[in-house]
Specification:
Layout (H helix, E strand, L loop, with lengths): L4 E6 L4 H6 L3 H4 L2 E6 L10 H10 L3 H4 L12 H9 L5 H12 L19 E3 L8 H14 L5 H24 L4 E6 L1 H8 L4 H19 L4 E5 L3 E2 L12 E2 L1 E6 L12 H6 L18 H7 L3
Parallel strand pairs: 1-4, 1-5, 3-4
Antiparallel strand pairs: 2-8, 5-8, 6-7
Helix pairs in contact: 5-7, 7-8, 8-10, 9-10
Length: 296
């Protein structure tokens, strides 16, 4: 058995919807609601909450806030701006205000220590580059503008979601103490299908199936979300806007954290010492041959 603690960050996985639709792989052996936080907006923001989960710090302390982002700097951020057109006026006005008073730039990353510093992490907002999220953001923008069908968007995003879960499974085969990966599909799908619960349920079930694949391949698994999503299925007032209903689920035993700021400490209590990676890498093939092949 692998000792790697595998953490999948499932953006916008809403605890109410996961339980209502019996997503057993999303809920694992133990599960519960997780209280999110709001900082720059009146609702939780992806860029601010994920580094909070990784560092245990508030956005003001870890330094990744919406007012530090150049909205036009990356494709994913441009997609966010376009998607704002779907939001109610009071939320959209807040985004516009931020956009007008910040300069161009890319996704910010915290300088604060994270729970993954002695492990590995992939596509985690505020902690690593997020090329997968950027790619999906472009697809979402095209779907929002009518240049891509919703079916094509979901199909492509299921592929990138599967790649993130596959990356996580690979970390347990060459074990590290803890590994984390972030997948964004449920957030985009929540915005897209907030008033079409049958379509949204289909995406939840598809993601749950992918999680079942992962569950068969890792021994220790934690699923956490940054926030939920308001929908007509849950009779919320602003369908398509983030909600406070995040979730945490795990194969681990013991009480669960109830707040996103407590997740890091909870994870660290369960992390075993990883392998010693201080040794230099060695390659047996002749260097000249590698240069001939174009590898070096």
């Amino acid at each position: 058995m692998s000792a790697t603690l595998c953490v999948i960050g499932l953006d916008a996985a809403d605890y109410r919807l996961a339980t209502r639709w019996d997503c057993e792989n999303m809920l694992l052996d133990a599960h519960g609601g997780l209280e999110s936080i709001s900082h720059s907006l009146s609702v939780p923001a992806t860029l601010e909450v994920w580094p909070t989960i990784a560092t245990g710090l508030s956005p003001a302390d870890h330094g990744v806030t919406l007012d530090g982002v150049g909205w036009d700097g990356t494709p994913g951020l441009r997609a966010v701006v376009r998607a704002v057109q779907l939001l109610p006026d009071r939320i959209r006005d807040q985004f516009v205000e931020f956009k007008e008073r910040i300069s161009e730039g890319g996704y910010p990353q915290t300088d604060a220590p994270t729970v993954f510093d002695e492990g590995s992490v992939h596509n985690w907002p505020g902690v690593t580059p997020c090329h997968v999220w950027e790619r999906e953001g472009e697809w979402f923008a095209r779907a929002t503008e009518g240049d891509m069908s919703s079916d094509a968007f979901v199909r492509r995003s299921l592929g990138t979601t599967g790649s993130c879960l596959g990356w996580l499974a690979g970390q347990s085969l060459s074990p590290v103490a803890i590994a984390g990966a972030h997948a964004h599909l449920l957030d985009h799908a929540g915005h897209m299908f907030a008033r079409r619960p049958a379509e949204l349920r289909r995406v939840y079930e598809q993601v749950d199936s992918l999680l079942g694949w992962l569950r068969e391949r890792v021994d220790r698994l934690v699923i956490v979300s940054d926030h939920g999503m308001q929908t007509t299925a849950t009779d919320d007032p602003d369908p398509g806007v983030h909600s406070e209903h995040a979730l945490i689920a795990t194969t681990e035993s013991g009480p669960l954290p109830t707040d996103v700021r407590a997740v890091r400490a909870w994870l660290e209590e369960r992390v075993d010492d990883g392998p010693d990676e201080s040794a230099d890498a060695t390659v047996d093939a002749p260097r000249e041959h590698l240069e001939e092949l174009g590898y070096l």
